[in-house]
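[Q] Does anyone have a clean structure-token version of this?
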Amino acid sequence: MTDRLNILLVGGGGREHALAKRILSSPRAGTLYAAPGNAGIAQIAECVDVSAEDIEAIVAFALDRAIDLVIVGPEGPLVAGLVDRLALHGVRAFGPNAAAALLEGSKSFMKDLAAKYGIPTASYARFRDEKAAKAYVARHDLPIVVKADGLAAGKGVTIAQTREEAESAIAAALVGGRFGAAGQEIVVEEFMVGEEASYFALVDGQTVVPLGAAQDHKAVGDGDKGPNTGGMGAYSPAPVVTQSLGGRILDEIVRPLARAMVDEGRPYRGVLFAGLMIVPGPNGPAPKLIEINVRFGDPECQVLMARLQSDPLELMLATAEGRLADLAAPTWRDEAALAVVLCAQGYPGKPLAGTEIRGIEAAASIPGVTILHAGTMRGDNGRVLAAGGRVLNVVAIGKDVAEAQRRAYLAVDKIDWPGGFCRRDIGWRAIAQSETA
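[A] Here you go.
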């Protein structure tokens, strides 16, 4: 009989619920704990009252429960060195150590690495001085992008349409301390025009295993209107990333990045998430790197897990142990997957908390649909209550994006939640492209 693994999953969002469900489908999955988990994860795993950011408590729990593998969902604990602390005690973990997680923890580091190794990205400069940053803006075309260097909970990027807007963003970070330590340095970069895509690969230091592309929807409103969010929905595969373009992404961005990290003495182990802009080029569309994330995207993870046929636990364990080269390439369902994120009213500002959500079971009864919890908690009598900004994910499989979208919104309409809202056009780019093909 195959040895079963005690697993600790760090995080409590929709991404972690998707990972939990798929991990438990593995024949090697033993007891699954989640720190802190959510109301949905609690139905299938043992949730523990430990914050994802509490590194010492996570390490202590892993040692107390003889955890065989820690799977880290969010970026914060990775950048803060959770994997390093676990390694000191001989505990395996899926995710990069702090030296490698700097790819997300510092935009300046990522941009400098790309420039040093010839990886295509937007032109940029980085600053700690307000006057120098404003002088740079004055010499360059608009719009222009101002980014806090460090982690800023998704709120550290300003696409400035005017010089006044750019100067205000610069002053807010460098003088006003809007982002604290994360904004003590900023990156000012060229605004790229094109179509965004997310590309994922597993990297165990040397070996790169592609997981393919998805497309996220960041703006809060239909038609990509309104402020940016953590993600209002996603689908996979992304038609913008053709087979040939996927090859270029691997050859020009992902593999060079993995080699560069080895050369820099920071070998990368974990899932590498390249945020890309697909820009027009003389030889057709070309990929340029916007950012690197050092974990699965949310909600992109949800659609990737819906399509992945291979054992995700075996893939993550092989990544952690540096033996991806020994595994067969992952296999995928031919169908498309689409996720709609249901949010609490007020998001991405202050979300309305504590409202009751009904109809989840009815929504989940639609063929091809899975309901994942993100920001939820259990109230009295087992009621499901909103406890965050992004609260539920409705994930649907279909023969193409259009069918997956239809099923997802059929399920959305069965959820009774006056305190919530969602976008109604997730997948619009892929559907429009298929209609004009």
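[Q] Thanks! Anything notable?
[A] The longest helix spans residues 243-263.
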